[in-house]
Automatic annotation (TrEMBL):
Organism listed in the record: Roseateles chitinivorans
Domain Asparaginase/glutaminase C-terminal span(s) in chain numbering: 219-308
SMART domains (alphabetical): Asparaginase
Upper lineage: Bacteria, Pseudomonadati, Pseudomonadota, Betaproteobacteria, Burkholderiales
Pfam family, one: Asparaginase_C
Binding site for substrate: S62, T95, D96
The protein, known as: L-asparaginase
Keywords, ordered alphabetically: Hydrolase
Source superkingdom: Bacteria
């Protein structure tokens, strides 16, 4: 009888969780991605007895996450998940673009094994660093029976990679789920208490993502706001924009100054998707709007994936 897979692979990409500052009381003036993933694992004694592999894929401040790193990460995660001895993958990441990476990985991989992203709001050098507990919780979730899909574990809460939104700039519990959703589960002393189903869907395939960043479609997000000016949008169209996500006011409304250039984009064959800039809710009544329930940042990822499939 074949034994169940036991090995977890921890992939480091940098972020605040691997950040370092010259002062233990400085929680904002640090350099992200300073420490190796091996050192993060070594700082959590409870992980010493686990069957773990650590791999450094990148050491980025996640505000600088790029398409080439996304492509390499998706392929590497897929390679590890295909190994029969691997139970799941844990990814350490920065919080700034965590929601975008999680959304992308779920749509591309839709894994049957757990892929758990975790992060921190304070650097590893802080007096009360939150990274070690978050990493320990992420490993606990990845080891739990029945967990699947791309999920995020931060501050004891477990979020769907398809719903995650960063909602606070400083607090340790900086995330929520949208639209109008809650956490999938919580972690309590290493035990997972689940409320909803794990993420599911059809995998688009990691090979869909080109490693050459120039081969990714150019998709931008533009916010509609008071006093909107169409010149930036017109410049994008002239420069070859391939897709646009409108972060609309309220229930999908757009400043009238943007209406004509948006029509011109559509007539030129450039897809324009609408979502709301509101922190919660969706565009109600937009039956044919693919981004109605997505954040602007998830909508941008989804539109890029749509263009890559053409």
């Amino acid at each position: 009888m074949q034994s169940a897979p036991q090995t977890l692979v921890i992939i480091g990409t940098g972020g605040t969780i691997a950040g370092a500052s010259g002062s233990a009381t400085d929680n904002v003036g640090y350099k992200a991605g300073s420490l190796s993933v091996e050192s993060l694992v070594g700082a959590v004694p409870a992980l010493a007895a686990r069957s773990l592999e650590a791999e450094q894929l990148a050491q980025l401040d996640s505000k600088d996450m790029d398409h080439a790193t996304w492509a390499r990460l998706a392929r590497r995660v897929r390679e590890h998940l295909d190994r029969p001895e691997v139970r799941g993958v844990v990814i350490t990441h920065g919080t700034d673009t965590l929601e975008e990476t999680a959304y992308l990985l779920q749509r591309v991989l839709a894994p049957e094994k757990p892929v758990v992203l975790t992060a921190a709001m304070r650097p590893a050098t802080a007096i009360q660093a939150d990274g070690p507990q978050n990493l320990l919780d992420a490993v606990a979730v990845a080891e739990s029976e029945g967990v699947r899909g791309v999920i995020v574990v931060v501050a004891g809460q477990v979020w769907s990679g398809l719903e995650l939104r960063k909602s606070h700039s400083y607090r340790l519990d900086a995330f929520e789920a949208g639209p109008d959703a809650g956490p999938l589960a919580v972690v309590e002393e290493g035990a997972v208490r689940r409320f909803r189903d794990w993420p599911a869907g059809e995998a688009l395939g990691a090979t869909l993502l080109p490693e050459d960043a120039t081969q990714w479609p150019w998709v931008e997000v533009l916010g509609s706001h008071a006093g909107a000016d169409a010149r930036s949008l017109e410049a994008w169209r002239a420069a070859g924009l391939q897709g646009l996500v409108l972060a609309c006011t309220g229930n999908g409304t757009v400043n009238r100054a943007l209406e004509a250039p948006v029509r011109a984009l559509k007539q030129a064959g450039v897809p324009v998707w609408r979502t709301t800039r509101c922190a919660q809710g969706r565009i109600v009544g937009a039956k044919d709007e693919p981004a109605a329930a997505l954040s602007p940042w998830a909508a941008r990822v989804e539109l890029m994936l749509s263009l890559l499939q053409r």
